[in-house]
TrEMBL record:
<dbReference type="InterPro" id="IPR001753">
    <property type="entry name" value="Enoyl-CoA_hydra/iso"/>
</dbReference>
<keyword id="KW-0443">Lipid metabolism</keyword>
<dbReference type="InterPro" id="IPR014748">
    <property type="entry name" value="Enoyl-CoA_hydra_C"/>
</dbReference>
<comment type="similarity">
    <text>Belongs to the enoyl-CoA hydratase/isomerase family.</text>
</comment>
<dbReference type="GO" id="GO:0016836">
    <property type="term" value="F:hydro-lyase activity"/>
</dbReference>
<keyword id="KW-0809">Transit peptide</keyword>
<protein>
    <recommendedName>
        <fullName>Enoyl-CoA hydratase domain-containing protein 3, mitochondrial</fullName>
    </recommendedName>
</protein>
<keyword id="KW-0276">Fatty acid metabolism</keyword>
<dbReference type="GO" id="GO:0006631">
    <property type="term" value="P:fatty acid metabolic process"/>
</dbReference>
<dbReference type="Pfam" id="PF00378">
    <property type="entry name" value="ECH_1"/>
</dbReference>
<dbReference type="InterPro" id="IPR029045">
    <property type="entry name" value="ClpP/crotonase-like_dom_sf"/>
</dbReference>
<comment type="function">
    <text>May play a role in fatty acid biosynthesis and insulin sensitivity.</text>
</comment>
<dbReference type="InterPro" id="IPR052377">
    <property type="entry name" value="Mitochondrial_ECH-domain"/>
</dbReference>
Amino acid sequence: MLREHLADGVLRLTLDHAERRNALSEAMMAALQAALDRAAADPAVRVVVIGHAGPAFSAGHDLKELTARRTDADRGRAYFETVMKTCARLMTSVVRLPKPVIAEISGLATAAGCQLVASCDLAVAGEGARFATPGVHIGLFCSTPMVALSRNLAPKHAMEMLLTGETVDAATALRFGLVNRVVPAAELSAETGRLAATIAAKSPATLKIGKEAFYRQVEMDLDAAYAYTAGVMVDNMLIRDAEEGIGAFIEKRPPQWRGA
């Protein structure tokens, strides 16, 4: 269901339940959550890549799994609440992971699958990738995917996807800001690998500081953001890796990161 492979500081997580279009079932979310929790604590992991097997990155929530609980006494309310909380924890874990997370998409990413792409720090798409938040087609507005989309896309682009439910191609996703790069399908894995390797070569302590600061300051007003990030810069200047990196730059030599 979820394959893991770690090499050279890059942990690749592959959603591998193609027959269910890599739906974010309870089992899939649990597996992905556990893998992210391990990655957060593992110093050997510097970058995480979330990719997929099969034609779909992820079709979002498993609607058959959800619908089966409508026969519960409460028509499924308690179960729906649990699933949505589980999904919210997973998405926030991606954002709060102290290592960068890159989505790699060659197929279709819809609903909560599109939400997962938007929750990742970076995204690389193959030319055949497609994206949608199609809940409006079935009377279920993509309210939780909206959280991730509205924090990545311009408001009108996010609303267009949410209100129409229409599928957008990779080029449109790039224009909207949902993905960073679009490459031919045959080059997708190599391009993601190059991006991940570039980031993995940086100080892990600095990446942790920077990622946390980015997401915290973006929700602040201008004055508060500058006050907060000024403090972050001071703290960052005092870590060993910053001292080493600046020294290496001045001395014109490669830095030797300690991760602290």
